[in-house]
Amino acid sequence: MPSRYAAELTQLHADVATLIADAKGRDGADRSEALQRAQDMLAEEPDVFEMCEMEATTVETQDQLTEYRQTADNLRKQLADEIAGANRSELFDGGTMLEPKKNSQFAELDAIKQKSKNSTNELRKALQQLDETEQVSADTLKELHRQRQTLENIDSQAVSYTHLTLPTKRIV
């Protein structure tokens, strides 16, 4: 059963694909608007994908992540092709076509992606440490319980020994 984030990611991919397909049949500002919406939606994709990554715990879910990544890459290529395929009048008609991104924006995006990946890795390590700590704590608790039983056993033996020795002291 797919997670909420996996379902959201699948829906996002389907919506972007629909917008790209719709843009092919449009001209001018309508085409630009559809492509801009598709681009905006794809900008949200890495966040949803990251949430899916955090939930991925099995080989099957890791394979699904690979498919999601390929789908997103294909959608980005299709979107870039549609933007590049815009006619000359759209490109120069008062900026209705998507504005080109600056290199600094790409560098900033790459830095954010890297930071996000690092954060995800740190979270995974922290979860692993928590699991290890929980196991050590459970083992320690078992050992403490065993020691308590030993001490209680010693205490009960000491009490019975005391009861045996009291009559002997009276005789002496």
Please outline the major beta sheet. none
Number of beta-strand segments: 0
Q: Please give the share of residues in helix.
A: over 70%
Radius of gyration equals: 32 Å
Which stretches of 5+ consecutive residues score pLDDT under 50? 94-101
- What characteristic shape results from the CA principal axes? rod-shaped
- Please report which band the strand proportion falls in: under 5%, 5-15%, 15-25%, 25-35%, 35-45% or over 45%: under 5%
**CA-CA gap between termini:** 80 Å
Structural class: mainly alpha
Order of helices and strands: HHHHH
Kindly describe this structure:
The chain is mostly helical. It has 5 helices and no strands. α1 runs antiparallel to α2, α1 runs parallel beside α3 and α2 packs antiparallel against α3.
Present the secondary structure layout.
Elements (H helix, E strand, L loop, with lengths): L3 H21 L3 H28 L3 H26 L3 H5 L10 H69 L1
